[in-house]
Amino acid sequence: MHDDRSLVEARLKRVLAERIRPALYPESVPLTVSIWTAPGEPVPVAEGLAAPRSAIAVGDAWGAPWGTSWITVEGTVPAAWAGRTVEALIDLGFDANMPGFQCEGLVYRPDGTPVKGLNPQNQWVRIAAPAVGGERVLLHVEAASNPVILDYHPFLPTELGDQETAGDRPQYRLERMDLAVLDETVWELVMDLEVLGELMAELPEDGARRWEVLRAVERALDRIDLQDVNGTAAAARSELEQVLAAPAVPSAHRISAIGHAHIDSAWLWPLRETVRKVARTTANMTALLEDEPNFLYTMSQAQQFAWIKEHRPEVYARVKKAVAEGRFVPAGGMWVESDTNMPSSEAMARQFVHGKRFFLEEFGVENQEAWLPDTFGFTGGLPQIIRNAGSKWLLTQKISWSQINKFPHHTFLWEGIDGTRIFTHFPPVDTYNCSMKGSEIAHAARNFKDKGVARHSLAPTGWGDGGGGTTREMVAKAARLRDLEGSATVRWERPAEFFAKAEAEYPKPPVWVGELYLELHRATLTSQARTKQGNRRSENLLREAELWCATAALRTGHPYPYEALDRIWKTVLLHQFHDILPGSSIAWVHREAEATYAALAAELEELIGAAQRALAGDPAGGRELVFNGAPHGRSAVPAGGAAVPGGGPGGCTVTARAGGGFVLADGLLRVVVDGDGLVASVLELASGREAVAPGTRANLLQLHPDFPNMWDAWDVDQFYRNTVTDLTGADEVAVCTEGPEEVAVRVSRSFGSSTVVQTLTLRAGSGRLDIDTEVDWHETEKFLKAAFPLDLHTERYAAETQFGHQFRPTHTNTSWEAAKFEACNHRFVHLAEPGWGVALVTPSTYGHDVTRTVRAADGGTTTTVRFSLLRAPRFPDPRTDQGVHRFRHALVPGAEIGDAVREGYAIGLPERRVTGSAESVRPLVESDHGAIVVSAAKLADDGSGDLVVRVYEAGGGRVRGRLATSFPLAAVVPCDLLERPWDGTRGEVAADGDGVRLGLRPFELVTLRLTPSSAPSA
Ligand SMILES: [Zn+2]
Fold it and tell me: 820, 517 in Cβ contact below 8 A?
């Protein structure tokens, strides 16, 4: 037979586009349209419904950037349409080439009840089926004219990303506003032909199935009268019945589809718009659940449920009903889909505490999966946190975005730094916006790495971010793909159903050990430095607030601020969302984030101050107490306590150096700052070891051009390193502090349009060189690094992560290692040869890189750590990071890992001085082992007055120790993160008088509920 395949395929494409789809709505009449534009920010629904309208016509412009318009459509169903399916078609001016990221609407009835959302690929509103002739139609649309930030001109700087700079030029023109008759037979024919056409394109050309489908499609096209599509659609469909009825082969891949809309909690729109995006999409999805009995929908992020509850109670009532029916499924168990690289140990734990608690309290639902489809990499600390939250599965697809290496598994056990293993699935469909296209279904089946031993994968299905979620077309396609020869099978299934099946069919999955590093978006560790510092500051202040408020409550009866801490935690958790903390949102989001962090800091300082004043007693007592909020004692003040310390050790000196510069010494270190203001030497006197590599200088600021190929705020591309400018010229190098307690040198530089002032300080007895940096940054598309070339030979280094540290190589032997050219640290990186090491600690910087060179002169190895201070991308915020920034870093020579842990905490938790009458404040709990670290001490969330203490093993070794309490102890109960009794703790936990004996595995995390037997004595 002659091969006419491409002819038939081209025919299908044209007839579908130009004849069949246009016949979907064979009759229509225009609606009357009127509009009211809210003068500023969105208004309550009642106000929008009541506002006076003025006339507007199809073709007219509407919608300033970020504006809200209330659009009313009115009409009458023609008498001749009685008995037919009638819909309103409301096109706000959508660009259907983009599923979301533009204008959107939420349709209301006159009484204020929501109907459904309007989105670029979801523009219909069902009026009646069957219709009654003469019926009046009156609907109101709350329309948001959100500007397009990304799609038209990807990554070009735009002023549209902030209300303050976006201007008022209308963004859209009203398109079709009609009442129309939907021909459901034509609609079904479109679905048949799309499914078969897309399937056909994926089938092998030498297989019979492809040709059977082709011939059936040809016969269907033959049956269509192009002048009477509506009259012949049923006949065309009859030609397709047989090929659509052929069942899938027994070995077909099995896809668990779940309706979904990935809605970023802020990104190319502000937080307030996400509240409405969620409401629109959720209204769409509860409506679709009512229309489609087999459909299931899942939504993650407790915060988004909380927003609907607060701001759109009428939508929330429908959500609660659908959740109770088991069809609207809360997914995951986190407050938001957060970044996981940067949040602190406690914050990562609290994401689960607040997410899970919300789902439990609102719906009685506790999920076993962590749902993070879009997060930019996963730390080795996360598996243990997931387990301690009472969960056991993880879903993400993001690692498929890696630039270099293809991950070897789709279903596997992921092992964290402590040995916890989590059953993990990466959907091989490689998207969280599956639309049930044949190419996606075929890709999932072909791409699945675990074929032969497993056959299930998950497909989150629906448009996110203003796309409105799953469409009725996707549901129709899924129905045809349920059991179809040549395709993977598709079933609507809840995430838990999928995981249970996947786990059961795959008893010995492969194991991946350590972090899941995303080989992309590496610059999200640095962009929007003020947002990142706001997060760090808030995490530290929350630690202190909980510690001192709990201490004051148990010691003095000071009221514990449950409500404030709960609210502040949730705000901090929200801002850890995977486009806020990573710095990849528009200017508006980061402007608001900085203001929010400032307000939180002020409130937390108040809470801390009030608690410490309650503990210190009458200020007339005149004693200056030093409070130590860090988990290790310092300056004779115990961890978590307060004391009046004696005089400091003193002995600091600074002397001018021949040839320029200064020598600083404190009895522990001798530091040479040269005439350029660079650190030429850091000698640890006890060991006689030099930290700075010969022939190099430390604290060298380096400036790189930084213009990635795409994703400006997200990405730094490897080639940035090819060009570098060392900032060695100093405007001034001068002594700025000179006393026995402290000596410091100030170094001023200018470069480009920017200036930097650094203060290098030795404090008596500290054993570390502190470097405070203030940059007035006015560069464009540059990357600023601070380099520390160290005289250390090591294959690997440690970087702190949640509840421990993870090792990374210092070399680039493999493509996997080479791809990690920018990585995350929490408070420290630590590098060591046997017996001697160096820690670099910081409360302000997350990004770093580590490289190695071998010196020609002496054959020694120089290992260089560089902290990533600032970038200056221009998309999506055209003025990212302009202005003044302050950073703190410190070099700790002679540090073991325990010293790195201790100094990392200490640098972010400065001592506080309060005048009172007390002689001291005893800590509530005290660890007798440096590696048993208290990461949080707080009162139990249930208001019982119990003390909850979270401890972990911080050194990476097995330890035994004791946690002493300074109050009579009635009971000790190991708990999960939600403070529920938990028998999952594998370490030894035993009551031991007024204390707890602990035996912990490397990096083991334990939460303890300590019940005081009576009011403790001071
Ligand atoms: Zn996202």
Answer: yes
Model-level pTM greater than 0.70?
yes
| The pLDDT value given to residue 1016 | 44
8 A C-beta contact, residue 135 and residue 76? yes
Distance 578 CA to ligand 1 centre (A): 6
Closest to 369 in 3D by CA, of 342, 419, 334, 320: 334
CB 840 within 8 A of CB 548: no
Distance CA 846, CA 373 (A): 22
609: exposed, middle or buried (C-beta count within 10 Å: 0-12, 13-18, 19+)? middle
For residue 374, the CA-to-ligand 1 centroid distance in Å is 5
Q: Are 415 and 405 in contact (CB under 8 A)?
A: no
Q: What is the pLDDT of residues 740-750, one digit of tens each?
A: 999 999 999 99
Length of the chain: 1018
Note the pLDDT of residue 154: 87
How far from the centroid of its chain's Cα atoms is residue 156's Cα?
24
- 867 alpha carbon to ligand 1 midpoint, in Å? 27
Q: Rounded CA gap, 107 and 76, in Å? A: 18
Token pair of 760, please? 């290098």
Q: Decide: 787 and 496 in contact? Cβ < 8 Å.
A: no
pLDDT, one tens digit per residue, over 561-608 is: 999 999 999 999 999 999 999 999 999 999 999 999 999 999 999 999
Secondary structure of 121-162 as H, E, C letters? CECEEEEECCCCCCCEEEEEEEEEECCCCCCCCCCCCCHHHC
Q: Cα 485 vs. chain centroid, distance in angstroms? A: 39
CB 987 within 8 A of CB 1000: yes
How remote is the CA of residue 883 from the centroid of ligand 1, in Å?
28
Kindly give the distance from the C-alpha atom of residue 376 to the centroid of ligand 1, in angstroms, as a whole number.
Answer: 9
The DSSP bridge pattern shows strands 124-128 and 861-871 to be unpaired
- Give the whole-angstrom CA distance, residue 70 versus residue 53: 8
Predicted pLDDT at 208: 98
Q: How far is the CA of 264 from the centre of ligand 1 (A)?
A: 5
SS3 69: strand
> Which residues line ion ligand 1, judged by CB < 5 Å?
264, 374
**What 3-state DSSP class applies to 551?**
helix
- Give the integer Cα–Cα distance in Å for 475 and 896: 58
Helix (H, G, I), strand (E, B) or coil at 796: strand
| 3-class secondary structure, 901 | helix
Distance 263 CA to ligand 1 centre (A): 7
| Cα–ligand 1 centroid distance for 339 (angstroms) | 10
SS3 32: strand
Distance CA 964, CA 661 (A): 49
Alpha carbon distance 122, 99 (integer Å): 9
- In the prediction, which pLDDT does 1017 show? 46
Report pLDDT for 177.
98
Are the CB atoms for 847 and 522 separated by under 8 Å? yes
| CB-count burial class (<10 Å; 0-12, 13-18, 19+) for 245 | exposed
**Phi and psi of 233, rounded to 5°?**
-60, -40
pLDDT < 70 regions, the chain:
1015-1018
Residues 6+ apart with CB under 8 A from 586: 149, 161, 162, 267, 268, 269, 270, 876, 877
CA angle 914, 920, 922 (to 5 degrees): 115
Which residue type is seen at 906? A
Mark residue 701 as left, alpha or beta (left: phi above 0; alpha: psi -120 to 50; beta: remaining).
Answer: beta
Which residues are annotated as catalytic?
A: 374
